[in-house]
Write a structure and sequence with these properties.
237 residues; alpha+beta; Beta-Lactamase; Rossmann fold; 2 domains; 5-stranded antiparallel β-sheet; two-stranded antiparallel sheet
Amino acid sequence: MLDTTKKTSNIDLQSLVDSHQEPFVVIDSEYRVMAVNLAYEKSFGVSQEEAIGQPCYKISHNSDAPCHESGEDCPHENLFEIGKQDSCLHVHYDANHRMCQVRVSAFPLRGDNGELYMGELIQEISTPDERRLNGRRMVGKTQPFMACMDQLKMVAAAQAPVLLQGETGTGKELAANFIHQNSVRSEQPFLTVDCTVLTDTLFESEVFGHARGSFTGSVGEHAGLFEQAHGGTLFLD
């Protein structure tokens, strides 16, 4: 049970979250939810009474462990270890228990007695119905398709290489583009290379680049695909 001092701080924190129009939640150093606003309740289908005191990863992720333990970026560690403001992409569950891609912006907050809290502003950047990629759409309503979309959103939130498998024409490039557009790399280049047209020598020079005269016919320096896609995504097809 919270003591009287902590309750006084919570009243101030509640006033703070209520001033935000977008979903906003306050979390303590033990991952416990201390306050949520009405927008959070509506977006994620949980009441203030249900959320307060519960671990944030249980409420937002339906998980039994902090999100960083499953490979997701988590601003909680940075904020409480070094007091640093942070931002990352997360996968949350909405009021209909469907996965949605959100941007979490975390800010250090202080209670009445100097205790440190994390304020999270949550901005939804994709919903289950938003699958448009540069004018093209990933269209489907079947359960396997929706499960695939959920997996792509989870992958987009992680910083790791991705292997996409499927027959020709099943949409691997669309899936790769979807991951890119829903990741922290979305504002950087997305490049695709058809590996079937590259010989061993040409593959090396195209992917890693080359200097003038490094092989017969090379003129001038050429930036490799890794360099061109720096900060973004390189899809090797």
